Amino acid sequence: MVLGAKVFFSIGGHDEKPTYRRLMRTDAGADLVRNRTAYPALFTDYDALRALADGTLGREYVRELDARGIHPRELSRLTDIAYEGYEFSPDHAYVRDRVREAHDLYHTLTGYGVDVAGEAGVLGFTFAQTGNKGWAVLLLLNTLSGLTTGRLDGLRVALEGYRRGRGAQFLPAVHDWDRLLRTPIEDARAELGIMPMHPYRPIELGELFRNASA
Fold first, then answer.
1. Residue 175: how many CB atoms within 10 A of its CB?
2. Taking the model in full, what pTM does it have?
3. Which long-range contacts (CB under 8 A, 24 or more apart) does 22-29 make?
4. Which of 107, 111, 171, 187 could form a disulfide with 197 if both were Cys (CB 3.0 to 4.6 A apart)?
5. d(CA 11, CA 132)
6. How many CB atoms neighbour CB 35 within 10 A?
């Protein structure tokens, strides 16, 4: 994770200006930046999320985290280590962290898995939302790796993710996540303007490895 964060930084992931400018164009986004507003406590209170009703956004989010063995707070700590020695303005650091901390929630909101094609969908969605060229480079690398399997459907998922990101509300400027996490997931998606996902066939990492060793 530390190495991955350094790679992301080196390929342009430090360029938060497009996201910052988009935040500052809205009253809600500008207030978030000026006040350094954190996500609500529920966002990282995993026991409280597990206690939510089935079918709510928060319950589905933590269900996926548990299934994958993912701990976003630990991932954030490791990426902070990767960024040691780099200078960030307070605004830059705030915008960077706000997008980073929501990455796994974007998986739940969009419906894309953590397989290669699913990551392409989330990367496309995030690039459309933020304009950060680091996400675009990761998307390109991800899509090229998927093409090595001889399958073209990963590219379709990437393009769909981008279109869905363009059509959705600007998620970094959303402030009422406490309420949304308690909302039925389909209602939350509709409110945020996240279009339904077309079913796709996952591209698992094993397919890449088999191709590389063939």
1. 15
2. 0.86
3. 22/130, 22/131, 22/170, 22/172, 22/173, 23/95, 23/170, 23/172, 23/173, 26/170, 26/173, 28/173, 28/174, 28/175, 29/170, 29/172, 29/173
4. 111
5. 10
6. 9
- 169 and 22 in contact (C-beta within 8 Å)? no
Q: Is residue 56 within 8 Å of 184, Cβ to Cβ?
A: yes
Q: How many CB atoms lie within 10 A of CB 89?
A: 10
CA distances from 24 to 98, 100, 116, 132, 179 (A): 14, 18, 33, 16, 23
Q: Could you give the 3-state DSSP secondary structure of residue 204?
A: coil
Q: How far apart are CA 113 and CA 126, in angstroms?
A: 14
pLDDT one-digit tens code per residue, 138-187:
888 888 887 788 888 889 999 999 999 999 999 999 999 999 999 999 99
Q: What are phi and psi of 56, to 5 degrees?
A: -75, 160
- How many helices (H) and strands (E) the chain has is answered by 14, 0
Q: Residue 114 has which token pair?
A: 């953590």
Structure-block tokens of residue 51: 């206690």
